[in-house]
Amino acid sequence: MLSRSHQPVLAPPPALDPTRFSLFIDFDGTLVPLVDHPDLVRADGELIDLLHALHARFEGRVAIVSGRSIAQLDAMIGNVASALALAGSHGAEVRVDGRLVEPERPAGLDAAIAAVRNYGAGHPEIYIEEKSHGVALHYRKAPMLEEPVHRQARAIAERTGLDLQPGKMMVELRGPGWDKGEAVAALLAEPPFALSLPVMIGDDLTDESALRIAEEKGGMGVLVGPGRETAARHGLADVGSVRRWLWEAVA
Description:
The chain is α/β, with parallel strands linked by helices. The protein has helices at about 45-55, 70-75, 110-120, 145-160, 180-190, 210-215, 240-250; strands at about 20-25, 60-65, 85-90, 95, 100, 125-130, 135-140, 165, 170-175, 195-200, 220-225, 235. The protein has seven helices and twelve strands.
């Protein structure tokens, strides 16, 4: 069914059975609201309590799957990060039980960062986010710059051999060869996630590969925010709805 704005209307997700499912959860826009300056994001006390409760109730089968680097996630989430599985940098970095697996730093990343900094110097309204395996340009404060920012990012990607990853009011240059779906599939092959049904919760186009994997593996994808064409069968309205649904699973 389509809404008046011709966007798909997704059914709310059913109650979660912690004995059967594993959780793979995006961070920005899913567990915390999107903000103009991503470096200011920190997990609040209620979210930290929720993550601790989920980790216990799902017997360790909880992973944060984010475009952020693992170093950024550690800083934002705090001590609970060490208990969770983390897939950062759009799946390039994966840490489980303290074991970190990541590829070499992309060869063209330093050149891309220099080019992005040079471009950003003339556009102070753009926020530049440097990561361990990529660099992102956020134009949330200046949406009229979407077309020129994407054009510039495409040109830099062509020169440096990096992949272009569009997202909500941002575009990122990152190394080729991985995505969030691959990270979820890799985690599902290892304990404690093996033999469970995956639930992926995410809001952005960058989450689509992971939403698709969750559906293909017999679990479910849950899209956060307005309906759109997506691999997910279920939807939740916003960050508050996500948290309430997850709290119900540990009640």
